[in-house]
Amino acid sequence: MTKITSLIIGLVIIVGIGGLVYWQKQEAKEEQMAQQAAQDSQNQETPAQQGTYALADVAAHKDRASCWSAINGNVYDLTSWVPKHPGGEQAILSICGIDGSAKFNRQHGGAQLQAQILAGFKIGVLAQ
Questions:
Q1: Which of 77, 78, 74 is nearest to 126 (CA)?
Q2: For the chain, give me the number of helices (H) and strands (E)?
Q3: Distances (CA, A) of 103 to 24, 39, 60, 109
Q4: Domain-by-domain residue ranges, the chain?
Q5: Separation between Cα atoms, residue 126 and residue 15, nearest integer Å
Q6: Higher pLDDT pick, 52 / 31
Q7: Which of 20, 83, 96, 126 would give a disulfide with 67, using CB separation of 3.0 to 4.6 Å?
Q8: What is the rounded average pLDDT of the residues 13-42?
């Protein structure tokens, strides 16, 4: 094997290991952020009595200043979560004022941590 071939192989190995380490650190950072968000949502005060809301009520809260979304039959006030969402603000802003069930389920369907975080923002149920 020539020196150039050995050098190329060595570089490929170093870059591969570096990429793996970077990816693992990013995954750990995202998990830590999600866990912190879950704690924050649990510490958030929730209304003593939750209400029943029509989709028209949800539609009145469709921006960064007041962001509600209906997800799987419940209504959530996600306003404080917009700047904290690990996937970026736009992911939350895209479901403000609408039934965001399909988007939430497509992205997080079945994930226990995300469901737990979401539960901390529940303000009521969606009227049928």
A1: 74
A2: 5, 5
A3: 26, 23, 19, 9
A4: 3-126
A5: 51
A6: 52
A7: 96
A8: 73
Contacts of 26 (CB under 8 A, 6+ apart): none
Q: In angstroms, rounded to a whole number, what is the distance separating the alpha carbons of residues 103 and 112?
A: 16
Q: Which amino acid is at 99?
A: D
Task: Please compute the mean of the pLDDT values over residues 23-49 and round it to a whole number.
Answer: 63
Q: Which residue has the tokens 């879950």?
A: 38
- In degrees rounded to 5, what are phi and psi of residue 53? -125, 145
Give 125's Cβ-side CA count (13 Å radius): 3
The token duo for 107 is: 């992205």
What does the pLDDT read at residue 3?
A: 84
User: In this predicted model, what pLDDT tens digit does every residue of 107-116 receive, in sequence order?
Assistant: 998 889 999 9
SS3 label, residue 125: strand
Q: CB-based contacts of 72: which residues, under 8 Å, 6+ apart?
A: 101, 104, 105
- Of 44 and 78, more confident: 78
Task: State the fold for domain 3-126.
Answer: Flavocytochrome B2; Chain A, domain 1 (3.10.120)
